Amino acid sequence: MKTKLIFILAILSILQCKAQFSEAYYKSGRENASHQKHKEAIADFTKAIELNPKYAEAYCARGISKDILFKYGEAIADYTKAIALKPYDTAAYSNRGLSNIKTHDYQGAIEDFTTVIKLIPDFADAYYNRAEAKIYIKDFQGAIVDYTTFLKYKPDAVDVYINRGSAKGNVGDRNGSIEDFDKAIRIDPKNADTYYKIGLAKNALQNFKGALSSYSSAIQIQPNDADFYFNRAIALQNLSDHKAAIADYTKGLEIHPDIADVYYNRGTAKGQLRDYTGAVVDFSKAIEINPDYVEAYFYRGASKNKLKDYTGAISDYNKVIELNPKSPETYVQRGLVKMNTGDKEGGCADLTNAGELGFAKAYDIRKKVCK
Question: How far is CA 11 from the centre of its chain?
């Protein structure tokens, strides 16, 4: 009897030692994680789990370190194990939801945040995170509801007004969008990004003067953001102020010089001012950055045509057709340029192709020039 009791006490002592060592490794892992030593932390948490396979907190902590090291799949597996051991662990659900977003499992993320909300209905961050996941699946209305709930708990959250404003814009509520952005500005009047997003919303409402004012406010606060200049330039183009638009595109390109779309846009503005040589230069730069930029080839061809560089224009239209064989407008333009070079047969054939592709006016043009 005494021998049996000693044996039981020995087992209990071993288990107690294991628990103590497991706890020590867990604490060491937390310490390493707090100093951004996540590889060492993972090793510590793994030791803790080996000594205590039911250590839910260690699984969750290891998942966090793995997530930080971009090992999202492994992190999700650890959070799932923690949840299996402690089904009401809201931290594990929250962290798994965030990792699910990073692996593009947005529905899985929404389910995790929904579980958190069921367990803790006043957990504001869960509503915010679920809203973010809903944005990815374009459930903008659902995101608006969640952002609104979050704001009941944290009414001064500038970023959430911005995000809700953007979501309202995506469901066509442009005025509601601007109201949210205005609220954000009242809370943080020095936030350039808020003015920028207001500009985008006003632009979508075709309130180009209002958009121009908002972009200008953003630039005044933060004068080194290329996107602010690029978008103000677009507003200026919509107001037919092409000269000012070119100046803004140029300023933006000084900050961020490798964006094909901006060279393309500046090229179109130059074309509006009949600076066809400058337009060709910009379209060429856009093509240099993006060799498959169909629109840039098309408008470079149009600019070359204006400069009477018919061979160059035909070459560009050939490239457009190579990249997009079903572009009737391009066949029309190439056909007309061929006519200018004396290739009436080739021109008429292009106009026929345009008509066959559904551009009915091509037949009317053909009747006039292909007699």
Answer: 57
Alpha-carbon span 224 to 156, nearest angstrom: 27
Question: How many C-beta atoms surround the C-beta of residue 256 within 10 A?
Answer: 14
Rounded to whole angstroms, how far apart are CA atoms 328 and 359? 6
Give the pLDDT of residue 281.
98
* 193 inside domain: no
Q: Which CATH number belongs to the domain containing residue 287 in this structure? A: 1.25.40.10
d(CA 235, CA 269): 12
172: exposed, middle or buried (C-beta count within 10 Å: 0-12, 13-18, 19+)?
Answer: exposed
**Is residue 336 domain-resident?**
yes
Question: pTM for this structure?
Answer: 0.70
Q: Is residue 273 part of a domain?
A: yes
Tokens representing 206 are 């075709």
Scored b (16 or more CB within 10 A) or e, 351-361 reads bbbbbebebee
pLDDT tens readout for residues 6-57: 544 444 344 444 556 678 888 888 999 999 999 999 998 888 888 888 988 9
313 contacts 305 by C-beta, under 8 angstroms: yes
Q: Which residues contact 302 (CB under 8 A, 6 or more apart)?
A: 271, 313, 333
Residue 323 identity (one-letter amino acid): L
SS3 content of the chain, % helix, strand, coil (to 5): 80, 0, 20
What ranges make up the beta strands (E) of 95-190?
A: none
* pLDDT of res. 14: 41
Provide the token pair at 280. Answer: 């060709």
Q: Tokens in use for 257?
A: 């010089």
Instruction: Give backbone dihedrals phi and psi of 332, rounded to 5 degrees, phi first.
Output: -60, -50
Six token digits for residue 343: 């290739």
Which structural domain, as residue segments, surrounds residue 277?
258-325
Q: How many CB atoms lie within 10 A of CB 296?
A: 28
